[in-house]
């Protein structure tokens, strides 16, 4: 019987459970056995009962739960060759040679590294007598597929990453809540949202929450941003708005590469405009809690598609992604390389090229 391992790795995201559940159930339906690797790659490095068979009912009642029920970690040991070799030994011992990983670009890169090194590990482990010749022959290759779990929506090759839609809902609810108290007092608020190098959550929540101004890493404001922002906000006050809401993505910088913090923005609102201004940093509430309907069905669809992909196992590793609401496939490391290129173009200040390279309509 074919054995598939499934793990979640890196930062958690809402909808990861839907993906794990779909992998387990689609795998079982296809006649495979599915094993949960707990606590991300750390579970494979540690082995033992961190690698456990998951049956149909083991993934009951997880669809609506936030986070990941099989745990996740950013694993230092897996960054070292020795750690990855240990993971290979533990996987082979459990008869697993197909892996579906749900994580960010770092986790996907580490997984592909293991796949590349796998034949060498198999040879070394067989030579050392840690696995049998039969195990070495049966598990000669590692087949992998990647799903992107991240609220940031920062991966090239997919319209959405698992968790983004839920985070967006949470941010929008928070902006709605802030807006009502802000309006009562005619106050101004600066709301910081997550997203690392990607302003998707900031722009989309600013639109959905009717914010007055938004600052993102991909489009740093011109040097006179303080005057520009003050001008825009004064205009909307004059037009009768009782609030000013500024959404700022973490990781926002000016054109010289100096960070712009929520406090910098608050000071402009308070000192230059005389407003009663407050800062709200949403933090990890964006990443927790129940997944949205979209994240549930999208992750379910991708989990199902990933099982088909690793059972075929006849092409280079694929990113199992979503485009136009359908599962699509793209060579995994091409997607990762393109994503890294976007981040470095942003760092170099080549913003238009970065956005073109990301390949979405905007953000
Ligand atoms: O990648 C997801 C994310 O939530 C980013 O938006 C944020 O910058 C980062 O993870 C926070 O990481 P941690 O949870 O390790 O503090």
Automatic annotation (TrEMBL):
Belongs to the phosphofructokinase type A (PFKA) family. Signal peptide: none annotated. It is found in: Cytoplasm. This is 6-phosphofructokinase. Residues 3-307 form the Phosphofructokinase domain. Catalyzes the phosphorylation of D-fructose 6-phosphate to fructose 1,6-bisphosphate by ATP, the first committing step of glycolysis. The chain holds residues 2 to 364 of 749 of the full protein. It comes from the Bacteria.
């Amino acid at each position: 019987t074919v054995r598939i391992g499934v793990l979640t790795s890196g930062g958690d995201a809402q909808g990861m459970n839907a993906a794990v559940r779909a992998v387990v159930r689609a795998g079982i339906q296809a006649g495979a056995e599915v094993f949960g690797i707990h606590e991300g790659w750390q579970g494979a490095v540690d082995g033992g009962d961190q690698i456990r068979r998951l049956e149909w009912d083991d993934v009951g009642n997880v669809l609506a739960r936030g986070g990941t029920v099989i745990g996740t970690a950013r694993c230092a040991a897996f960054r070292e060759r020795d750690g990855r070799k240990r993971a290979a030994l533990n996987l082979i011992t459990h008869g697993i040679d197909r892996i579906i990983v749900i994580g960010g670009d770092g986790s996907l890169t580490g997984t592909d590294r293991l796949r590349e090194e796998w034949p060498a590990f198999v040879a070394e482990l067989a030579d050392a007598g840690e696995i049998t010749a039969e195990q070495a022959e049966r598990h000669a290759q590692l087949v992998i597929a990647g799903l992107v779990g991240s609220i940031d929506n920062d991966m090239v090759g997919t319209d959405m990453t698992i968790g983004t839609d839920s985070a967006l809902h949470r941010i929008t609810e928070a902006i709605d809540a802030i807006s009502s108290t802000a309006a009562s007092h005619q106050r101004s608020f600066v709301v910081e949202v997550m997203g690392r190098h990607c302003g998707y959550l900031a722009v989309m929540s600013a639109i959905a929450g009717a914010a007055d101004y938004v600052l993102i890493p991909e489009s740093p404001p011109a040097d006179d941003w303080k005057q520009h922002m003050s001008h825009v906000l004064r205009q909307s006050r004059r037009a009768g708005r009782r609030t000013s809401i500024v959404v700022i993505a973490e990781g926002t910088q000016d054109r010289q590469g100096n960070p712009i913090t929520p406090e910098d923005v608050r000071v402009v609102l308070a000192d230059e405009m005389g407003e009663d201004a407050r800062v709200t940093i949403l933090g990890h509430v964006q990443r927790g809690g129940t997944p949205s309907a979209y994240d549930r069905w999208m992750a379910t669809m991708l989990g199902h598609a990933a099982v088909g992909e690793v059972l075929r196992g006849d092409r280079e590793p694929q990113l199992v992604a979503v485009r136009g609401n359908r599962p699509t496939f793209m060579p995994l490391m091409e997607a990762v390389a393109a994503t890294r290129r976007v981040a470095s173009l942003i760092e170099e200040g080549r913003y238009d090229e970065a956005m073109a390279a990301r390949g979405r309509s905007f953000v």
